[in-house]
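Supplementary Methods, section 5.1.

A reviewer requested that the exact input to the structure prediction be made available. We therefore reproduce it here, unchanged from the version used in the analyses.
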Amino acid sequence: MSAKTFTLSDELHAYVVAHGSEPDEIVRDLVAETRRLLPAQAEMQVAPEQAAFLTLLAKIVGVRRAVEIGTFTGLSALAIARGLADGGRLVCFDISDEYTQVARRYWARAGVLDRIELRLGPAAERVRELPDTPEIDLAFIDADKTGYPAYWNELVPRMRPGGVLVVDNVLRRGRVLAPDDPDTRAIVAFNELVRADSRVESVLLPVADGITLARRL
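The structure derived from this sequence is encoded token-by-token as follows.
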């Protein structure tokens, strides 16, 4: 039997979602509204199993200080906020007021709006507003792919020892093996950057479109 991960059929993916923490009504409504309002961009939303993973990971790590770069309509932020320890805060960076207006409505509906601070503008610039001290417990990157190295290099020094970084879309639907567009070439370069970074230990997981999970040493 091969030890490699296999590709999920639609039916098997449904089974995976059903046998984890299933999406509640708020998540289901957010997914549906995103698909209805933004059909061409809906794939930018994290998968349901990724959202459940982020909530559980935040709880396991005991996250009080979290950062997200790339919020879109807010599902990943909702997931992280739901996993924060008492008094925890999540700072989100995004450039779109239109998309994040949807996010705000669902954060309010879920009762986590007071845990989230949204900062609009170019993330590579605005992330430098964060304290220089290593105090972030969890960081999630899911934004423009060419910006990943800059986001990584701003965040890693700000992670506390044992802090966790999660980075989405690191497999580009398999195109990393034969990159044929600027975003995929950027991800290939980013994956090499992470592999060579002695500040972290990391693993690339074949979940959804691929996520890198890294722990600050």
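Helices lie at 10-18, 25-37, 48-61, 75-83, 97-110, 123-126, 148-155, 182-195. These observations are discussed further in the main text.
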